[in-house]
Amino acid sequence: MDSDSLPELVGSPRYVRFGPFVVDRQRQQVFRGSTRLRLQGKVYQVLAVLIQKQGEVVTREELRSALWPADTHVNYDANVNTTVNKLRQALGESTDKPTYIETIPRRGYSFIGSAHFSETPFLEGSDAPAQPSETSASSNLAVPPVEGQREGRKWLTLVIVALILTGVLLGAGAAALWIARIAPSHRP
Q: What is the mean pLDDT of the chain?
C-alpha cells in the first residue's frame, strides 16, 4: 500500500486483530491463525481503510480516492464492487450475513467487526497484546512465521518422515530375517 494514498495509517499500531484474523500492517500481510491469506494490493488497501475507520461509513468516493490516483481512468464502481467482493471472499464472509463488512446501500461500506490494535503481536486466542518481556519465539504468539522458519519446518517435517520410513523399512527387514530363520526350523 502506498503510504501517500493513506496518510492516516502512518504511525498507526503495527498489528490489528479481528475475529480469527491478524493483520501485520508493516508487512501488509493478513493471517487466519498461522495461514497467510493472499490479498492482492487493492483488496488489502480496502481492508486497511475499512479497519482504520471501523464503525464509520466509508463512502465509495473515499475508497476510490484511497485506491486510485486522481488521474487514473477506470470504472470505479465496478472495481470497488469487485475489490470488496474479493475481500469478503478472502474473509469467508457473505453479503447476506456480514460479520466484518457491511454494505451501506447507495453510500459505501462499513467495517462492523471489532478490531483491536497493538504495537506488539497478539497472544494466540486473545485480544490482548503480548507483554514486551515475552519473546516472539514463544509458541503462543499469533505472529506469522518468518520465511526462514517455514523453510526450517518443511525440512524438519521431511526429516521426521524419512526417519519414520527408515524405521518401517528396518522393522520390515528384521521381520523378514526372523521369519527366514524361524521358517526352516518349523518345516515338517
A: 77
